[in-house]
Structures are given as structure tokens and as C-alpha cells.
Amino acid sequence: MALELRQQLKLTQKLVMTQQLRQAIKLLQLNRLELSDALQAEIEQNPALEEDLSSPETLETSFSLSSTIEDKSVSMEPEITESVKVSDGLADINWEDYANNFDSNFSFAHETPPADAPSQFDFISEKPGLSAYLHWQLAHSNLDATEWEIARFIVGNLNRYGFLEVEMERVVAETGCEPDDAEYILEVIQELDPPGIGARNVSESLYLQLARLGKGDSLAAEIVLHHLPLLETRNYKALAKETGRKKPELERAINYIIAELTPFPGLPYATDTTNYIVPDVYVRKIDDEYVIQLNEEDIPRLKLSSLYQEMLKKENNLAKESRQYIQDKLKNADWFIKSLYQRQRTIYKVMESILRFQYDFFERGSAYLKPLILKDVADDIEMHESTVSRVTSNKYVHTPQGIYELKYFFSTAITREGEDDMAAESIKTLIRRMIQEEDQGYPLSDNTISEKLAEDNIKIARRTVAKYREQLKILPVKHRRHAK
How far apart are alpha carbons 193 and 197 in whole angstroms? Predict the structure, then answer.
């Protein structure tokens, strides 16, 4: 049979992802902070979409994103302000105090501010990090151009803990220097502040700190250099065997290491910013009833541009292209507003369903969390599982028990004979509680925790306990043992 090209008609049905549908799905999976940025970007791109700055009580056609707040009539009192001349009071202002004022409200006081009063410049300068601090110290060293290049390369390859992340062979290859020169510059950096900086690992860092204190030949130095794993586990028996010292001497050396040294000398100079979680939903208990409220702070109310709507109604002499442009922009703006409203309604419905399923959690805490899967909530609110998954991803709720990600409420079930199934998160809470209440001299092993849970008809294997413990970021039993 010969191969040939031919045309044929074929009728098929398939789901087409329109641009509007893609936009609605994208808005659905955004958290609150990302939503605020998306709103500002859309307002800038679409001139037919405007921020509604009028009072919500007097606006009839505005679109509010909230589906939980009832409209209340508020009596607006007229604001009356007496006219003020520009020259009024200018001569009485203490301009020296104004220049030294560190907040936005200048003072009208006549007295001169104290000499040690903080200036606004004390609050706008950026906190210097570890690299800047080391460069400032190196500036006082007598280094030539070649040595400066080596020093900058080494400092640039220190991590946030103050450790050198590259081998000395790499330093030599990148800077084109001799190995002796690279070692010399590294020693110069290791003599800078903070002590222990420029080390390759924790052991070297602790030894550098001891050497700075004049204890480079002490028992503590021997422990950090050659027996650091035994120090981590507090294995005094093995330490006594390896060092030939008695337990009281070992205890004094270890206590000195813990009290005087730091394993990560660069951390105090880290400039990492803290990212705070802003909840998307609030669940509050008011008069023995839980109330769900969406967090819409700083999220603007949107409306269609009245100017563009009037242009379509009155201006009959608009060009066809201009009229089509305005119609498309208004259509897109209208769809964007409806997508926002649908997003808020969906989040509210999902949170309402979670509240029904996990009511005991909101009343008593994480130990009473029930098994729940996406399909349960999807069937309850008559939506698809993928929609529930998008709603619960990267969104947080503020509850009487704390702030949790919405994904937290979905947990696999652990079956129990003759009793209701238990959520995996509830078992993690029990494991955490057991370890918090254990005797630190004789901590509970994973096998012991498994046996204790079995006494409460919770039968899970030792390796499952170990997996849950690692997810809780709890150390193994050998690292939790403390001598008495």
C-alpha cells in the first residue's frame, strides 16, 4: 500500500481551556499576598478596571469580594475643617527638631532635642552582613592587590554559617595564586572576628575558637578535633576510653564547649529576613458559634470604568477599532471581577466544609483531628477535587488553635480495631507529647513509642514512628539523651 497525503474531516469533542478559564484557575490558586499583586497588575494593564474608592454603603454597582460581611448602614458625619493659611505657625516650628525627627510627624516644640536623640538615618541604613563585616576588617590589613583578590574570593564563598564551601584547590584555580598564598590568606581571615570564621566544618570552627582562647592543647580541643560524634551523643564511656580521662574531667570540658563556643559563628551576622504568614481566612468563635471571615485587608474593591461605559453609550462616532477595543476591555474587566468573586465564594465554601468535618479540632486541638481527603470535601460542596486542591494550596487559616495551612486538615487514616479511624496528624501530636514528657536521662526509643501507642489501640510499626518523628524534626533517641 502506497503512502500518500490526504485530507479528511473528523468530529471530536474536547474541553478547551479559554483564556478566561485559565485566568480564573490562576486566581483560585493564589494566596492573599499574591492576589494583591495580581489585582494591582490587572488594574495597571486594563484601563476599564478601576479601584472603587467610594463608600460601600453608597455604591450600588460595586463588586465586593466578601461573601461573609453583612451590609450595615453607617451614618456619615460631615467633616468641617477651618481654613488654615500657609504662613500660620511657620515661625514657631523648631526646624532643628524637624531635621532630627525619626518619624513622619515633626515636632512643634520650642526646646532643642537632646544631642543623643536618634536620627532618621539610624533607621534607613541596611544592616551589614557577614561579608561586609569581614571586608571592613580586611581593609585594615596590609594586603596587596593579589592578596585582596584571594581574600574576596574566599569571603564570597563563605555560607551563612561562616564555613568555607569550596576546596583550597578551587581557590588556587580561580584566583591563579600559589597554594601557600591561598593558605596564608585563609589564616588571615580565620584570625578575624567572629572567632571560628573561615573553617571548613564544625570541628575546625570549634578548635579555632578554643585556640583564640589559648586552649588549643586542652582536653576540649582534643574532643572537638577527634571525638566530635561522641560529644554529640554525650557518650562519656566511649570518650573516657578514647581519651584516657575520667568522667568529671570530660564533663568539665564538655560543659565549657557548650557554654563558651558556638558551632556556627556566622549566624549572628545573617541578614535573612523573616517571612510572616498572613492568613487568608479567619475562623473565630463568637457566642459558641464559629464564624468564617475572609481576610480582605488591603485588597481593593473593583468596578468597571464608568467613563468607558459612558463612551460606548453616548459616542456614536467612535471608530470600529476603538469601540471593539473598549468592549474587549470591559468584557475582560467584568470577567476578572466575577472570577474574584467566585474565588472568594469557593474559599469560603471549602473552609465551611472543613469546619464541619474537623469541628472537634477547632474545639479541642490537633489531637482530635479526623481523617479527611480531598474527595470528602469535594463531594460535600459539589465541586471537583482539583478545585479543592487549588483552594487549599499555599493558603492559611487563623483558628483558635493557631495558624495552619489548609492542607493540614487533610490527613490519611490509621485504622483501629473496634474504634474510629485516627488521622496521622493526631498520632504525630501524641508522639510529640510523649517525647516532651519523657525522662531526658532515659528517652523513649522509636520501638518503645510504638509499644505505648499499641496500648491505646494505635498499631503502627517502629519505622512509621521514625518517619513521623523525622517529619516533626525531632532528633533520634541517642541525641536526646542527657546525663544527669
Answer: 7
| Digit-coded pLDDT (tens) for 38-48 | 888 888 888 88
Residues whose CB falls within 8 Å of the CB of residue 20, separated by 6 or more in sequence, listed in order: 332, 335, 339
**For residue 450, what is the enclosing H or E element?**
helix 446-455
Q: What band does 104 get if pLDDT is binned at 50, 70 and 90?
A: very low
Delineate the domains of the chain, giving CATH numbers in brackets.
130-269 (no CATH), 281-409 (no CATH), 413-480 (1.10.10.60)
pTM above 0.70, yes or no: no
Beta carbons of 44 and 329 less than 8 angstroms apart? no
Residue 62: the pLDDT is: 37
Handedness of CA 66, 69, 72, 76 (dihedral sign): negative
Q: Strand 49-51 vs strand 396-399: parallel, antiparallel, or unpaired?
A: unpaired
User: Who contacts 186 (Cβ-Cβ below 8 Å, separation ≥6)?
Assistant: 154, 164, 168, 171, 198
CB 361 within 8 A of CB 369: yes
CB 480 within 8 A of CB 440: yes
CA distances from 74 to 43, 58, 60, 387 (A): 29, 10, 15, 37
Task: Give pLDDT tens digits for 204-247.
Answer: 888 899 888 888 888 888 888 888 888 877 788 888 888 888 88
Eight-state DSSP code of residue 284: E
What is each CA distance from 246 to 7, 238, 303, 343, 396, in whole angstroms?
Answer: 92, 11, 79, 68, 54
